[in-house]
Amino acid sequence: MKSSPTSDGDRPFRLVVLASGTGTNLQAIIDRVHGRDGIELVGVASNKPEAPALERARGAGVPVGVFPRGAYPDRETRDGALGDWIEELGADLIALAGYMELLTPPMVERFRDRTINVHPALLPAFPGLDPVSQALAHGVKVTGVTVHFVDEGVDSGPIILQRSIEVDPDDDWDSLERRIHAAEHELLPTAIRMIAGGRVSIDPSNPRLVRTD
Ligand code: GRF
């Protein structure tokens, strides 16, 4: 059984977060994960120089990196520079927390089984943009949150953890999104702690199946 990297007593488990927006999931990681259980947030990078997430990182004394698309000839080159930065930090795990760009295939391959994403729906339902609107438009009774490994597709990688959230007939985008966001702030830190603790592995006989202890 293939296991994800784990914290080993002496050396902290090094986490890098990629974020493009407000960064409330990053804040949950800063508040609930960083500096605990042998886990250190060693860097936060963004494709958006003005992302409020970067301010949250600076406020926590965490090094930041900015890799805007326009500063590089193409996405592969940008992801190469981002990947080098992440490797220099010695990252064991990359968490995408509202990172609004697809990673290029070489970047996915470079950090395969070491990159996770949080998505505000019960995948495989409603991948891609604005899953909260998708769920409301579809009229589902239950939606939720998924944390999954990142592969070359859109929100298509092996699922690590999910939490369901009931949709009330009177919910609008704001009310549903608020409950989803609150669930994300618990589920993503939980997944990071489980991976750091060696409690997550991919079943070699079924690479879609993630086992959690
Ligand atoms: C989250 O809902 C995340 O799942 C999605 O983008 C949102 C980012 O929120 N991919 P925040 O920036 O962490 O507040």
Note the topology.
Blueprint: E1 2-3, E2 13-18, H1 24-32, E3 39-46, H2 52-59, E4 64-66, H3 75-88, E5 93-96, H4 105-110, E6 115-119, H5 131-138, E7 142-149, E8 159-166, H6 173-196, E9 200-202, E10 210-212
Parallel strand pairs: 2-3, 2-5, 3-4, 5-6
Antiparallel strand pairs: 1-9, 6-7, 7-8, 9-10
Bound molecules: 5-O-phosphono-beta-D-ribofuranosylamine.
Structure overview:
With 213 residues, the chain is an alpha/beta fold. The chain has one domain: Rossmann fold, CATH 3.40.50.170. Helices cover 32% and strands 23% of the residues. It contains six helices and ten strands, in the order ββαβαβαβαβαββαββ. The strands form two sheets. Strands 4-3-2-5-6-7-8 form a seven-stranded mixed β-sheet, with helices on both faces. α4 links the parallel β5 and β6 (115-119). α1 (24-32) packs parallel to α6 (173-196). The longest helix has 24 residues, at 173-196. The model has no long low-confidence stretch (mean pLDDT 95). The site of 5-O-phosphono-beta-D-ribofuranosylamine has 13 residues, from α1, β6 and α6. 5-O-phosphono-beta-D-ribofuranosylamine binds next to α1, β6 and α6.
